[in-house]
Predict the structure.
Amino acid sequence: MTSAPPPELSPSPPAGARPEVLVECTEVVKTYQTAASLLGRRSMRAVDGVSFTVTAGSVMGLVGETGSGKSTTGRLVLGLERPTSGRVVFAGQDLASMSGGDLRRLRRQMQPVAQDPYSALNGRMRVSEILAEPFIVHRTVPKAQIRRQTEELVDLVGLPADSLDRYPHEFSGGQRQRIVIARAIALQPRLIVCDEPLSALDVSVQSQIINLLRRLQAEFSLTYLFISHDLGIVRLLCDTVAVMYLGQLMELASRDALFDAPAHPYTRALLASVPVSDPLERRSRARRPLGGEAERDPTTSQGCPFQARCPLAEEECRQRRPEWRQVEPGHFVACHLAGPGHPAA
Amino acid sequence: MIPAEVAAPLGPAEVPAAVGAEPGRRSYRRVLRWWPLAVLAVAAFAAAFPFVLAPNLPDATDLVGRLKGPGTTVHGTSYLLGTDSLGRDVLSRVIWGTRISMTVAVIAVVAGGVVGSLLGILAGSRRKVLGGVIMRFADMVLSIPFFLLAILVVAILGPSLVNTVIVLATVRWPRYARVAFGQTLEAHSREFVKASVAVGVGPWRLFRRHILPEVLPSLIVVATLEVGLMIIYEAALSFIGLGAQPPTPSWGAMLSEGQQYVSTAWWIATFPGLALFVIVVSVNRLGDLLRDRLDPRQRSPR
Amino acid sequence: MLHLTSPAAADSTGPKRRGHKAQLVAASMAVLVAAGCSSSGSGSKGASATTTASGASSSPTSAAAAAGPATLTVDQANSPATLDPGLQYDTDSYVVYRNIFDQLVRRDQKTLEIVPWVASSWTNPTPTTWVFQIRPGITFTNGTPLTGNDVAFSINRILDKTLNSPQYANFSVITGATGTTSSVTITTTAPSPTLLSYLTTLSIVPQQYVTQVGNQQFDLHPIGSGPYELSSWVQGSQVTLKANPTYWGGKPPYQTVDFRTVPTAATRVADVESGAADIALELTPDNATQLKGNSSSQVIAQPTERVAYLGLNVLGSTPTSSLDVRKAIAYGIDYQGLISSLEQGYAQPVKEVLSPNVFGYDASLSGYTYDPTKAKQFLAQSGLGHPTLVFATSPAYPSSLVQAIQAELQAVGFTVTISTTDQATYLKKVQSPAHDWGSIRYGIWSCSCLDADGVIYPLFHTGSIWSSYSNPAFDTAVQAARTSLDSTQRLSDYATALNILQQDLPGIGLWQYYAIDGANKHISWTPGPQETFFIPQIKWVG
Amino acid sequence: MARYIAGRLLQAVVTLLGVVTIIFFLVRLSGDPARLLAPQNATATDIARIRHQLGLDTSLWSQYVHFLSQALRGNFGYSYVQDQPAMHIVLSRFPNTVELAVGALVVALGIGIPAGILSAVYRGRWPERTLMPLILVGQSMPAFWSGILLILVFSVRFHLFPSSGQGGLRALVLPAITLGSLSLATIARMARGSFLEQLDRDYVRTARAKGASGMRVMFGHVLRNALLPVLTITGLEAANLLGGAVLTEVIFAWPGVGQLTVQSVNSRDFPVVQAVVLLAAIVYVAVNLLVDLLYGVVDPRLRLTGAAP
Amino acid sequence: MSQGVTDDQVPAGQDPVLAVEDLSVCFEAGRQLKALSQVSVTVGRAEIVGVVGESGCGKSLTALSVMGLLPHNATVTGGRVVLEGVDLGSLNGRQRRDLRGRRMSMVFQEPMVALNPLMRAGRQVTEVLSVHSLLSRPARKERTLALFREVGLADPEARYRQYPHQLSGGMRQRVMIAMALAAEPSLLIADEPTTALDPTVQSQILQIFLDIRDRLGTSVLLVTHDMGVIAEVADRVTVMYAGRVVESAPVSEIFHRPAHPYTAGLLASIPARNADRGRAEDLPTIPGRVPALGEITAGCPFAPRCERAQTRCLQEEPGLLAAGPAHLAACWYPLEQDRLPAPARSET
């Protein structure tokens, strides 16, 4: 139900048996060469030494603002990108060491659900063809049965059976996202990486999809890596939550610990910036928004990435990058000032 | 000159999603917009069966009846569009010329298009090393002005119709490669392509089912516009004596010959020029229509 | 007299101009034609005579005409490749540089006699020795006097193989030239009846200047003693000449002369019509017809010494190696029809591969006339069915004529394929010793010597690069004629040779070729059959 | 920035090296240049001598190396026809072609951009409905036809402009129109597309929300943004005009590189043709480079001034 | 019905800064598509009025209508817009233009694309002043720098010289706001001003709106889809659905006593308001989806998705009816006040 790097440090699973670790990222770094422009060539560390594990059957949330590297992390976990350094292990297999064919086979077990349901479906294919593709590629289902399988899939995600013979453009955003999800679960994967799956949808539709995701998870014991900037949704869906900032992990904890007792100043600022859900609350809350914005500053790469905006930043924060440490069982934080005896606690 | 109120746009969310069919009153206009197809159908028929349409043989000479104006009858043969300097029937030569122009253009486009597109798609799919090499080579070829390169190659191979086709195809492939490369890169960045990769779709199926359908519309549009260009360039090579050889009734060769007579026998140059012009206008317009239809990202003027 | 290797130049080792070009202000076509014919045979007779300057001729002074425009604009088809007289004699270069340099001797425009020019007189002390007296008082435009040494130098540099002069063949009979201040002595390997004719093409360059600046600089900045000097030269586009104020022959008529390169004939016509050019060289008969309709311009057409002919490949493995086939071809062509239609009457029928005004022309030969029935008979007789003839040509030749001949030969049962290559390739192909260039080719030949030697020798003598024919009897006859100074003997030798050609048909004479130029109506100019372009002879009237 | 320029320069050099290589091997396919160079009555020994002079008796590879090293020194061989360096001949004609190309560009930009703007602004109304078909016509009219027609009408019939040759502005008019018409169509279409795109941009709405007038929106905001892509296409067109000038130059007897090319091809003067092609490639690459750098000046987004987020 | 709206909504004795009355807008797309149907909104002085709804409900179109920046294929077919007592429909183009930027201004959703990429930030702001011939040239710069400080831009001099791409998202939006405030308009229209921004930046920007309302007395029409944003800053709320106003009330009324089933459904489905629900329990949702413009049929447009719909709802479209003091709802069967859900969650 929860996860954390070195598995032995994970909090005890709720029901006796030691939970299987499905995904393990260790010191993963992903560097991009920015395209040549008049600015010259530059490299950018999109993901900068990230370590975490995802336990089978759990939902791990990955939150962060624009440029925090959360989407890149998602792609690394899916094996769609190769890490510059560090290891991504899925079900015991190191993705980096696998050949193209093996990786393709392993892909069955992990599927993406992306943000934009409009571009995620090939507009030239009927829904039936889209949903049949996984079966055709992996030959998991005899040809004759593919149609029946796809019918089951649309039914599973709550679409009418006649959807199969239509084209994606005939569907609304929410319906398309259901098709995307249907495709993702077609091969009965173990992991689904959802990258902002709700942000393109209207509020009333969001809740429909949330319900769907929850139902499917329960039904197929899926594991989700749920990437989002919306803390409200993360709180609703996730068991553990990791907070990223400028490519680095700031904090990782169980949902309750994170929302109720955030240890990192950034996490707290993030929580504070969430709009109130009731106008009455605003009058009782003294709003003092965090200043500044998440910006990479190449001149101060050695310190804590958050120090420029951190209200508590000290000299040490500017000099040394904080180590990733456990402050409570299953509660990790990268802050010099967090933990017992520190002002941030 | 500038209207006071420049229209502001709508965000995608605000644009009505379902726009109904235009009223029937306008539908005839929509059909008429496709007039180039009708013109090209006629041209294609002329190219396939010139002997059906042409009243005379294209190379039958009659030196007595040379340089006769449109509508003249000589020796019992009437020449609707007049005769050329050897007394040949301009109309028949224009009709037979359709065959030359269309054949050369279409073969050149198909050959250059297939090679260029495949290379471009390959480059876009394997963009690290192979793609770099291919596109760099394409850049090099593209950096030589096309017509100069064509002249150089024809000069080396020797002028003939077959060589014209070879030249036009070999010199033109980078154009398709560029487009295919760009479109392939774009296709690979599309979410649904990534999703298919994630589902485990292999390179061949990816190419066939996802990349090619994405890339093809743009290529078809480019190829259509290229057909127009190729018709012009075949004529241009013939015009400077490096294309079809006499007495082949190529429009360019006819124009080249007719240029000498432009002030005394205007019809010799005018009609092949007109035929060339009409076909090219039609092809170009068709390209525009196709672009609107297939490649709405680059909408074109109506 | 003109030689070309430029694309325009067509075939020829010997001088000749391709295409269409002319000179002579033709007052009336009829007169011109008559004049051309009557002058035939006058070419190089009197080679051994001593001639003095006094009587002869058109002194340049007489050319200085009434008040014309300060600038004369001439459109030519191609740009001069070079202005170094030793390096080229394609028409386009020749037209220009002959006005910068002086010639040793010239031909009288009317009588076609060779008359003194820089050489005031000459003697022929032995059959192989010629001594020319140099007119005193001529200076190059840099002030150096022109001497016999300059003349000798001009000849010897052409003979020097390292210069790769395309004129070498014309002068190859010369063993050497030596000069003094006032004379030059030329020795030849054998008696040469045509030497004086060829010397009309010699332009005299300044020895001192050329040796000083070198060939390359000389090409760019030529200096001569002619009526004009180079003013500016935009390569490929325009050469501007300005009058030489110290010219020994009198004040040149136009202050400047612009030679512009205008490759498209229709544009040249338009230029004359619109007044953009005063003279347009090398027009087609159809251009002439067009220009005649314009009141502000005139056509200057003129029979030349050039002959239009078909060369037939006798030696290669082609149907034309059969005499029957060659005869079928000769009967299958409607000469009169082509003359009246394509040539618009700007041509004169011939009976052999010679122009009637050339020494050696035999009017008594029967020649061939259009007879399709005979053509078909001969073709049938050959037993080859409907053989395929390859017609080799290049863009330098009028494609309509080639196509017309193709159509006519197809009408009598041949299949004719036209094989077009660029001019340079065409020349290499035709001159290849393998004789694999095809079956028929079209050409227009002149030697600028008005002598049969310059025509049938290079075209048909065994081993000549233009010849795809071999007959020892013919070779003997033309060889004898070329080394004899006795004109009666020579005429009989040529009669023999021409008779053999009529039987063997290695070539078919089509017609005497006309040069056609267009000009502003104010121009008064009569180019001779040799198509010379001396600016002082071009007058401006009314 | 310096690094970027260096990189682009390197890229340009690589491209040109490639072009040189392509041309070298193409031309070697054309047969033995020695035979072309030799006088008509040359003997086998003469030809061998010329072959040796030209270094044609060495291996293809060493010929290539020699050619490259000569090319790097700016020596692209001697003309077979004129006894001059090929590049010298080409360069002597080059200013004429540049004059023609500039004229054509003036026509193309001067008409193309306003036409593009008008048809974008008056989309679907009569200016567009008139201009766009005209542009289509211009695009489909081959130079060798339109040139002939222009001469017929404006020179022969009305004597308005000279029918051929170079000399003064009047002589430039017809060739410039002929050559420029294709580029005009390209530029007008590009301008129209670019303006339409820019008119749909949010910043235009912002400007209008400020209360800016239509003129101000158009010329203060849209114009500069919309002309950026036109700049690229103009660069390409300018470079292409060199190749496109061939037919125009032949028709109008314009003494430029294009005419030289046709003359040289007909006399198989390959060193000159080779030099023409190389010069054209150099111009193309140089113009592209220039446009790229110009972009940096015009578009602040590509300038290195402070960190981008 | 709508006649009474302004009287009902604006506090007595105060003229509204903006009054949109029965505004209808149609799209021309082969046929007429009604995009706005009798929309009425008022904004009082120093008031922040939120217009909320899902995509396609017409909220942005309403804002653009007020500014007179409708897309070229849209036309106003009815109703009027009154700004500080001036009926905008009675003005000619020049007069309307004169009001834009000066009396009313607008902040757009995407500051990246809403700023001219080729113009320095400072000039984009001074342009407002020069368009309206306000201040002298040097004074304009001073004013701009002051505005930059006001919206919280550090180092205004540097920002003044920078191009949009050199600014971060939040800074760009601040520039946009400075631009909107430059001529001291009485009305600021903000169309999804924080949607493209990160949460921490969003709260900074929202704070600016509150500040300017408080300090400058600027009225704000805030268009958003985010109930959280509404909850943070709005004084009054207008809820739109399918081109109509379905409910209009003070913010606490909307949140605590929604009368329209749509409003209630929307609120119920907000994830943040369901944080404490059990994991097995489904979130409340509104079934179906928002109708496209062409799909709207007779009757209440929400009826097909409404659990409470009766026959009348399918046949007859309800107008805005009073559902309480200063509270209007377009529903034949509004939720009874006592049945309304309590505030979803209290503070932690």
Summary: The longest helix of chain B spans residues 203-239. Chain B touches chain E through 18 residues (CB under 8 Å). Residues 1-24, 297-302 of chain B have pLDDT under 50 and may be disordered.
